[in-house]
Amino acid sequence: MLSKEYRLKKKTAFTATYRIKNSFYLNGVAVFVGLKKKNQSDKTLVGFVVSKKTHKRAVKRNRLRRLMRENYRLFLKNNELNNSDKYMSLIFVGHAKALDLDFLQIKDTMKRLLGMIDD
Which of 36, 56, 59, 85 is surrounded by the most beta carbons within 10 Å? Predict the structure, then answer.
């Protein structure tokens, strides 16, 4: 499980990241990118969101959220974050199209999204 020190928790942090309007979408997963860091010592905070409009069952929403969180944890562990660690916050948003994807498909999608951030 991704440790709490890396999680985006406050509503103000979520709205500030959304307000930047820098986002990428691929295969049912979107990523919103926050501001660039001024200090390299700060950790990149990450949020994972799956709306109730995506699916009415909490089990389905939580599964997608868990898959995204675990993939990000593995990216962090293996230093596969590319240049996304240069940002203050990231928010991964799951959509209905991603509910049917398995672990490896989500991993591939998230890796490609993190690659898009570098550009």
Answer: 85
